[in-house]
Amino acid sequence: MTSERAASPYPDSAEEFRQRVQEFLSAQLPAGWNGLGSIPTEEQVVFIDAWRATLHRNNLLAVSWPESYGGAGLTPLDQLVLAEEFTKAGVPQGGLNDNFSIQMLGSTLLKFGTEDQKQYYLPRILSKDDVWCQGFSEPEAGSDLAGVRTRAHRDGDEWVIEGQKTWTSYGHLATHIFVLCRTDPDAVRHRGLSLLLVKIDQPGVTLRPLKTLTGEEEFNEVFFDGARCAVESIVGEVNDGWRMAMTLLGFERGEAAATLPMKFGQDLERLVQLAIRYDKAGDDTVRQRLARSAEGVEQMRSMGMRAVSQWVNGHEIGAESSIHKLFWSEWLQETTELAMDIMGIDGIIPTGDGLQGMSFPAAEAGTPNTSGAWADYFLRARAATIYAGSSEIQRNIIGERILGLPKDAR
Amino acid sequence: MFFELDEDQEQLKDLMRSFLQQESPEHTLVQRTENSLERPHDVRVFDRLCAELELVGLAIPEERGGSGAGLVELFVVFEELGRVLYGGPLLSTMLAAELIVTADTEDDFAELLGQLLAGAVRGAVAGLEWNRPSGLTASQDESGHWIVSGVSDYVFDGTDADQVVLFADSGDGVRCFLVDQPEALERSAREQLDLTRPVGRIRFDAAPVTPIGSAASAAGVRERVVAVATLCITAEQVGAARRCLEISVEHAASRTQFGRAIGSFQAVKHRCADSAVLVEAASATGLHAAWALQQDAGQQDPVVRSAKSVCSEASVKVAASTIQVLGGIGYTWEHPAHLFYRRAITSRQTMGTTWQHRDDIASQLFARG
Ligand SMILES: Cc1cc2nc3c(=O)[nH]c(=O)nc-3n(C[C@H](O)[C@H](O)[C@H](O)COP(=O)(O)OP(=O)(O)OC[C@H]3O[C@@H](n4cnc5c(N)ncnc54)[C@H](O)[C@@H]3O)c2cc1C
């Protein structure tokens, strides 16, 4: 229940690094810092830019990357410790697209990229010369990613791309897009796919903003009409894109297991305050549901620690990440629904500052405890069981890959 | 770095698993519970658990005659016991020993402790319920001897334990006692929902007792014994839920309808997946509670409460789901699914109901806020 444990399950080396991160944070953050959520929305974007530059200057954007590619050469556990401390302090680990640029693409290139690709792309990601977004989903291929239709064919020493992607988050902020496309039209489904690295600012790429259910223009449609990239701009082998995509999606969930419970712990504290403000501390139903939410945080924390120790002991976190994803996305929906119930009729006229489009999984620390923030969070939570693999897909993965049940008819 | 079992703990788990598979196999469960008023356990199994595996003293310090292992090891053991719905007097004997070790710092009860650890004496603890008054009051008679009166309604193994220890309200707080003449107590077995573990009622009618430990430490002792008891129940719940999940999955993979394995239907597959999530989350939370309690007793209350409530929910839901996945077979007397369900509901109501724990968790949240 408490966010601090008396004993740390981490090795000393990680705790020493934690100390360093804490010192860095207290030196860099303004006095009385209360979390990104506590500054006005307009200033958040400015802050994030400046903060990202500070992180870059101090080599803290990708601490576990090798030094030769611009990283700090530390361990993945150090990376995790950093993520934890940043989460506690309510500061981001990078800019909005860095989840795509650093965590997803960067990690995939480190694993499968050629030496030239690593030398070229990785430092440019850190310096923000290149900003990435993810071009996987298509209007006709979401859950069924193996069904992508966007095609690429060879023309001399270039790939030429035709087709459409959609729901591309932060595409409007990106300079580049990694595109899963069909390079062998005759091969069945996932056997004929490749992962290409494509510049957005070129003839043949058109971005159109697409409003989300919250009313924001956060994701986009992307049209490819003869867009080009060099033949070398492929990750892995030709027609081996499925494996690349799966690796990349695996990195998408990497640290979440350990850091989300912390964020959710902060959300829970806000929710308790909200309940007090609405005089619901004596309401039996609210008490039971709040306790359930608190238990959820405890469960996520315990599962997160298990994942971390597996990771530290050298086991990859595989399909279990589906359990985490399913759990936290449902927790989020239940908990934000509880907030709406606590606010009662106030919830339908959201007032006060809200979140306004800064982060998907959880409200930032310091977010004002207003009906505006909770109503926004509540709506936003609807996406959590859809993106990064819908709940139904997670249940299929758990059933088939963890429990070994037979595949359903496909 | 904690949170995966280490090699020794894995070995302990394997040892327990193979021992119990042999000595207490699942397919005999139903037959063993035919008469719910008779003790559904095999005395020989209990003796071996005590004498060969030395389980009563597993988490008791070496200097007091135990093996000095931790609560994580205890969790591992009880998880395995839960898998087979073991219902013998191990838990109550162990809790009696735990009470004595914690309360009796002067070693006044060393002989009794030794007997409990050896399994030569089967113990029971009365007045032990989270969130409930003990129901027992203690007072001193003219000659200064302590006597206890009242009824303790839900005592694990209460009917035929050889020795009974208890918590009672002494007028200025709780105290720990040993019953002087356990054979003279009025004890009754009752028809009960769970057919695998007997819970008895004991009436104390000015029963002579001897205090264990000091008045000052008794509240702490109670807290500790309650926490350990809750943790063991929690571990059993995880083990039972895990076994239920396995039963469901085995069935879903092999039973065919409409020409396909039913596990290929998402309605069934997703049910199993939801159970897997419940089991994973419960097991992580329970084990974490064991670890946290061991690291820092001061933290015990919230983590153990959470774990109890979470594991209760998981075991009940997963057992219910197993009956559903098994269809008609799941509703037969011959299939052990109902025994898992009965145990799950019973354990959920024991050592603090989910409702009570959540109410207390809420109080803690508001007190902090
Ligand atoms: C906020 C947000 C941001 C996103 N950002 C990106 C991005 O940056 N880049 C990107 O490439 N994509 C992005 N996506 C797309 C996301 O990955 C897809 O929406 C998701 O994979 C689901 O695909 P779909 O929308 O086509 O729904 P569908 O696949 O059509 O699913 C519709 C419904 O059917 C269910 N369903 C589908 N298949 C099965 C099955 N086999 N069994 C049972 N049920 C099934 C689903 O669970 C769902 O409930 C984003 C989505 C959201 C909501």
TrEMBL record, chain A:
Cofactor: FAD
Stretches assigned to the Acyl-CoA dehydrogenase/oxidase C-terminal domain: 239-403
Acyl-CoA dehydrogenase/oxidase N-terminal domain mapped to chain residues: 13-128
Keyword set includes Cytoplasm: no
Gene3D superfamilies for this protein: Acyl-CoA dehydrogenase/oxidase, N-terminal domain (1.10.540.10), Butyryl-CoA Dehydrogenase, subunit A, domain 2 (2.40.110.10), Butyryl-CoA Dehydrogenase, subunit A, domain 3 (1.20.140.10)
One GO MF term attached to the UniProt entry: oxidoreductase activity, acting on the CH-CH group of donors
Keyword flag Metal-binding: no
Keywords: FAD, Flavoprotein, Oxidoreductase
GO CC, one annotated term: plasma membrane
Domain Acyl-CoA oxidase/dehydrogenase middle: residue ranges: 133-225
PANTHER family, A to Z: ACYL-COA DEHYDROGENASE, ACYL-COA DEHYDROGENASE FADE29
Family from the record: Belongs to the acyl-CoA dehydrogenase family.
Listed name of the protein: Acyl-CoA dehydrogenase
From TrEMBL, chain B:
Keywords from the named record: FAD, Flavoprotein, Oxidoreductase
Stretches that traverse the bilayer: none
Required co-factors: FAD
Acyl-CoA dehydrogenase/oxidase C-terminal domain mapped to chain residues: 231-365
A GO molecular-function annotation: acyl-CoA dehydrogenase activity
InterPro entries referenced in this protein's UniProt entry, alphabetically: Acyl-CoA_Oxase/DH_mid-dom_sf (IPR046373), AcylCo_DH-like_C (IPR036250), AcylCo_DH/oxidase_C (IPR009075), AcylCoA_DH/ox_N (IPR013786), AcylCoA_DH/ox_N_sf (IPR037069), AcylCoA_DH/oxidase_NM_dom_sf (IPR009100)
Domain Acyl-CoA dehydrogenase/oxidase N-terminal: 7-119
Flavoprotein listed as a keyword: yes
Keyword Flavoprotein attached: yes
Gene3D superfamilies: Acyl-CoA dehydrogenase/oxidase, N-terminal domain (1.10.540.10), Butyryl-CoA Dehydrogenase, subunit A, domain 2 (2.40.110.10), Butyryl-CoA Dehydrogenase, subunit A, domain 3 (1.20.140.10)
Similarity annotation: Belongs to the acyl-CoA dehydrogenase family.
Protein's name according to its UniProt entry: Acyl-CoA dehydrogenase
Biological classification of the source: Bacteria, Bacillati, Actinomycetota, Actinomycetes, Micrococcales
